[in-house]
Model the fold of this input.
Amino acid sequence: MAEKVLMKGNEAIAEAAIRAGCMHYFGYPITPQTEIAAYMAKRMPKIGGVFLQAESEVSAINMVYGVAAAGFRVMTSSSSPGVSLKQEGISYIAGADLPALIVNVQRGGPGLGGIQPSQSDYFQATKGGGHGDYRLIVLAPASVQEMADLTVKAFDLADKYRVPAMLLADGTMGQMMEPVELPEPQNSNVEKPWAVRGTNNQRKHNVVNSLYLKPEILEQTNFERFERYKKIEENECIYEEFMMDDAEYCVVAFGIAARISKNAVIEARKQGIKVGLIRPITLWPFPKAPLAKAAKQVKGFVSVELSMGQMIEDVKLAVNCSKPVNLCNRVGGMIPSPEQVLESIKNLVKEAE
Amino acid sequence: MIVFQKPKALTDAPFHYCPGCTHGIIHRLVAEAIDELGIEGKTVGVAPVGCAVMAYDYFACDMVEAAHGRAPAIATGLKRCMPENIVFTYQGDGDLASIGMAETVHAAARNENITIIFVNNAIYGMTGGQMAPTSLPGQVTQTSPYGRDTKTAGFPIKVSEMLATLEGPQYIERVAVNNVKNIKNAKKAILKAFKNQTENKGFSLIEIISTCPTNWGMTPSKALEWVDEKMIPHYPLGVYRDKDKEAE
Amino acid sequence: MTTQILIAGFGGQGVLFAGKCLAYEGLFEEKQVSWLPSYGPEMRGGTASCGVILSDEPVGSPIVSNPDILLAMNLPSFDKYESQIVKGGKAIVDSTLIERKAERSDIDAFYIPATKMAAEAGVPTLANMIMLGKMIKESGVVSIDNAVEAMKKVVSAKRADLLEANVKALMAGYNY
Done:
């Protein structure tokens, strides 16, 4: 086993990306994710990689588009307002079927918002923040270890399906330090015959493109893309179940909210309440099946979020509104306490009785 | 004996450009330069949004289609991960000088080792003839129906002059393609812009004064005359930056 | 067993670094640890704080809102956080910068003139380590031997001089 080191979540993302074979990073400073750019600026020149501080988020994502078109692993990172600026490029990357990683270390919004942690970009990440029908593979780490592991996973999935991936973290995850066992360096050897690296006068030219002026062809590309999305939904959904075996109530939470909820679940169990936790790790694809299964077992759900209630819509859809789904939340950079979550669990119990 | 043939760097796809539009000439000059330098196999082009949006169908090298104005950023990504390849963008005035100005200026400031073919015809052609950042004062367009009023719509941007104020760029020249002499000069400039990149000299931008007979509302031959009468006086041809010359 | 520690003071007092050392010490003892700083403009001269959790179980929430131990390195921090310490918890107070005593009687408060001691020892930037040493002494949350070992991990090998000074300050606090 490799030695565990203490690292900030943001730094763990950067180092894991490099170990996943990502040699190209384009970014723009914004709190609370700037450590990623700083780490890349320090490391990339020493390992023959590329770090470039772009003139804007818009440019950064388009530089990513360029490298992705050439078939190399590439990433950018930002925080909420910056990720909004990247949406145009993300839509193009999705439309051109390119693999790439976008990291969003979320902060409170809307607008300039604040700099404290938030999960209010859930809709933007999972429902398509840019124009057109498309999906991102969205991974939500809940520890520094997962910041590293899911970064590698995101690159692998993006390459496998030719779909851009997003790591959806938040200010706490980015700033906190925890012991982390860094992944072994790997070489990504995924064949990318579609990449534009020059024809070498050996083949017809490749074109990386999202423009299809004939509607019947554009429709077909959408159909084909959604076939791939279907496969991702079937094969790549990840979640964690905690104390769900005999649970009569279920908390649903991801990222930092899941960690807080775990404390509340443990405390509730001590007080005799049979409650468990389902933690979506992939937010898209969303773990519909385990929630649907839980709906047959439990009397109700609490969705714990650092938003005004975004994931709760997916929870309700997954359980087909067959059981009550309550919201426990704080927003604007505020974080719910385990006590608040416990209170919500107790309220749910009261309502169910 | 072969007297005339299509450059190898062009595909067989017929151009969609309007009659009398000089995009076709410029495409050909770019392709000839690629042929002459023997770089087709390692060239990657970036097409804009605008009339040349489908340039990816016409150039036989690998191509990427960019979002509006973002071609220099995409070219930066391509060049940075493949420094041995040749990367060029082909952009119009709306794409490069309006929505993509930031990308243009910063690529120039970084002396990014790419080649930019900038086609300036003082109008948005693809969308049907709206005012461009380079439309002349008084020029009538769909969105300046009473003529470009500099009091409310500002002044045209002289891209070559502006970029030449930066320390970064290697080579900036403005040329035209409205007569044989100008076409020959344009060819020389484009060739040099690509050659610079093969020699790792950095950012080269060729601004090419072009025509839009359709949206200017003129016959093709009148449009060529209008370039001499109106465009070139406002956009003087010449070399605005050449670090080679400065070094001599 | 889980111990939640909050270290708070002015930006520039080494609050975050002290927390990082503590987290490493926990890691050295194979505990589960987390370290979460306050971040943003308040770091520049305003108040800075970080929460460290050392536990035998996986750490749930990394947010320390009710610390078992508070290290207060300035008055605003003591004012702000004294009331949040758990009943029966501890406060380590830099008595150079905080003249008042604890208002609560249900916590154990320990006073140490860390800033003055650091200045007199010629290491004015190391009051944080003196505070940390005192905290280790009074809480036993990690062993002092392991703390010294862990320090070697945190302070870069190139700065052996810094390491020595840090260890000295740590021991000064421990032995006060």
